[in-house]
Amino acid sequence: MEELSSQFTYKMCCNSYTIHLIWLSDETLMDVSLRFRREMDKGLCRDTNPTAAVKMLPTFVRSTPDGTEQGEFLALDLGGANFRVLLVKVMADGERKVEMENQIYAIPEHLMRFFDHIADCLANFMEKMGIKDKKLPLGFTFSFPCQQTKLDESILLSWTKGFRSSGVEGKDVVSLLRKSIKKRGDFDIDIVAVINDTVGTMMTCGYDDHLCEIGLIVGTGTNACYMEQMRNLEVLDGDEGRMCVNTEWGAFGDDGALEDLRNDIDREIDAGSLNPGKQLFEKMISGMYMGELVRLILVKMAKEQLLFQGKTTSELLTTGRFNTNEEGVVCAENVLRGLGLDPSVEDCIATQRVCQIVSTRAAHLCAATLAAVLRQIRDNKAAEKLRTTIAADGSVYKNHTEFSRRLHKMVGRLVPDCDVRFLQSQCGSGKGAAMVTAVAYRLAAQHAERQSILDTLRLSREQLLEVKERLSEQMVRGLSKQTHEQASIKMLPTYVRSIPDGTEHGDFLALDLGGSTFRVLLVRIRSGKKHTVDMHHKIYSIPQETMQGTGEELFNHIVDCIGDFLEYMGIKGASLPLGFTFSFPCHQSKLDQGILLKWTKGFKASGCEGQDVVTLIKEAVLRKREFDLNFVAVVNDTVGTMMTCSYEDPRCEVGLIVGTGTNACYMEEMQNIELVEGNSGRMCVNVEWGAFGDNGELDDFCTQFDHTVDDCSNNPGKQRYEKMISGMYLGEIVRNVLMDLTAKGLLFRGKVSERLKTRGIFETKFLSQIESDRLAMRQIRSILQHLGLTTSTCDDSVLVKEVCSVVARRAAQLCGAGLAAVVDKIRQNRNLNQLTITVGVDGTLYKTHPHFSSIMQETLQDLAPQCQVTFHKSEDGSGKGAALITAVRAQRLKEERQ
Ligand code: 0WK
Ligand code: 0WK
Ligand code: BGC
Ligand code: BGC
């Protein structure tokens, strides 16, 4: 009994001794977890990162294996207890198999030429494997805190865990290894990636479990990594997608954040370590220090007569003599005897108890920081409940069974709302390093293949200059009586000879047909010093079936709308002079006549091509018998736009539309317009540049996607230039590129959604939305969801955005090249070295796309440097311009009648 009671009290005082020394309550652990979360934020934040203890290092590992990786890879696994060289074969066919050969090599304690030794081991391994003649890609697991700027460059910040080779800290370990290999000169390898062992562990397990997004090491050292949102990684540019962050949590507390929890033993260990003041959290947890913690506690208790009758031995007093992976009572006796002690049963129990409490503290501290990481991921996903997998490795985690059990349990207690699976890595991080290399290779190969597809849509300056030259040529051919018929660009005379001069006056009706909307307008123009224009308008839609029905139906619909508007404005009886913006190629021999040459855009009403549209509409008015219209002018929307803008800026002599369709007009010298009599003065020419390329002038710039869009359009072979630029087609080009990338397995994991197969489903407005704001990711996601692509990844979204910007950029550049040809023609017409001119512009694409106008202007400036061009965005539409032309004409007619 006595024995028991003394045993009990003995036990009790041992307990209380160590407990007060080391035990951490759940509250304290929760507090540690919150502290660590704050440290994570400091590390992630650009301003506080330099002083943060927990460095949150970017790893440039952005995606986990998707099962398509394959190939043969070398891997190095350095920094744990063992240095391994591995050959990893990844097979993607059917069963997705990974075969590995590996060899462990020693790392001598006082190694002078560190990387020479690594290179020697590598050579030895390759010799053994008979692969010395192969230049294999290599993934390098280097388990120390490193600053990375890319996947294959890694600056060692500081050695940890007993390593301290000189001349390495502050250096790029990849260049050091490459140098050592070069020095040997008997083999060559391609170092593709250098990663931390936590990252390697995450990738190793990620190959089998796609939910795996955390890597944990509790071995010689301790650390964790996890997949963080790029937008939180302030030290890097880019908001899109995720990247793995190596927390380097071993350094938690190096700024004093854990001082209240560290005890004398912890301080003693740190003071005796190779890197005092560093890795303080690690020194409370990892295998390199746990044994020492126990030893120092035993020494302390012995000296306080609480153990071994106060006796100590030189072994017990020797640093590092108590190995970490001993915990059981039985082995406590063996260990203590191994230290020259003669332990009593109580001593063994007390020692086992001390081990228990030390490793429990370690497991619980680990749980506290893991809980912080789990909460970060849950909050990033704005998820109610997080379901995730933690990959774990390291001799403590693996061999110290109680450790992992206690860790799992405490994690469950600290974050009950997270459903966490721990997956112990069976193959070490070498496989993970090979996976990162394989993914890097796959991404590089996919990137190269994607870029080779996108490169077909990228135009060089030389090519754009060529487009300008060829378009200039076609303009001249269109103007010349001889070649006009064959020319693809018709350079149509508009019979608009001058721009408004402010004397215009009166009420006018205007129709604006041909863009995305049909407008009927009442335009009140008042002359005088402050000449003003008041406008009332109503927008009407033109149903697809009317656009593509009979001409009669179309013009009846137009006249119905006019009737509705006149009714609405109470001016049915007025018969005001009317200007008709008809945005299609028309041959005109006078202002109030326009023979439709061909429909473009979505229109193909029958019985109209070759007809005078003024006659067609007058017939419809007659059929309606409700009101009469006084047609004075029919103009193209480019001309209307030029007039509208020149009313504000008299230097405006060019009109540009980039909307559903695209086109331009400008004031040409009469002597150059061979189709019209007279050589003096100028006349506005409707370029109809949409048809540029219809004679094959652009074939060498057309991609397979352009051919597909043209083949599927309702006017194949026509309007080729327009089909590379305008709003009606850009979405379709993007859709076809996305389809092609998906079919090649380069997007959406090769899965095409039914909806994405639907023509016209990827509207051009999506391009503007996707490229518009910084939060494009969320926007892209919702658009892809709308397109039935619910499983798209971040990388998919990034690529969709890139496709949109490449397609829009080409359109803007082609438009810029066309405009450069037009303004340079005007400059040459006027024998000017420098031309200052304004372009009036309108159209949804130009107005809504965030980058179109700036890219177009850059290209124009670059290809027509002798032209100073101002862009005047039309706010009032071309209806106003049509009314102004009508006013000018009406004025002229009045003067002629007087
Ligand atoms: C095995 C991994 C290696 C890592 C090691 C850590 O393959 O990358 O460094 O675990 O555990 P340790 O060997 O330090 O106990
Ligand atoms: C507004 C003009 C109209 C022109 C249209 C072109 O008032 O004449 O046709 O812009 O842009 P879209 O509506 O095709 O985008
Ligand atoms: C290193 C980490 C490493 C960990 C586990 C620490 O000492 O700083 O980079 O991940 O040990 O090996
Ligand atoms: C038409 C042009 C029009 C342009 C912009 C083209 O399809 O052929 O006449 O100016 O679209 O609306």
TrEMBL record:
One of its GO terms (cellular component) is cytosol. Pathway: Carbohydrate degradation; glycolysis; D-glyceraldehyde 3-phosphate and glycerone phosphate from D-glucose: step 1/4; Carbohydrate metabolism; hexose metabolism. The keyword NADP does not apply. It is found in: Cytoplasm, Cytosol; Mitochondrion outer membrane. It comes from the Eukaryota. GO terms for biological process: glucose metabolic process; glycolytic process; intracellular glucose homeostasis. The keyword Acetylation applies. It holds the Pfam family Hexokinase_2. One of its GO terms (molecular function) is glucokinase activity. Residues 23-207, 451-647 form the Hexokinase N-terminal domain. It is a peripheral membrane protein. Its EC number is 2.7.1.1. Residues 213-439, 654-888 form the Hexokinase C-terminal domain. Its main location: cytoplasm. Monomer. Interacts with TIGAR; the interaction increases hexokinase activity in a hypoxia- and HIF1A-dependent manner. Catalyzes the phosphorylation of hexose, such as D-glucose and D-fructose, to hexose 6-phosphate (D-glucose 6-phosphate and D-fructose 6-phosphate, respectively). Mediates the initial step of glycolysis by catalyzing phosphorylation of D-glucose to D-glucose 6-phosphate. Plays a key role in maintaining the integrity of the outer mitochondrial membrane by preventing the release of apoptogenic molecules from the intermembrane space and subsequent apoptosis. PANTHER family: HEXOKINASE, HEXOKINASE-2. This is Hexokinase-2. It comes from Amphiprion percula.
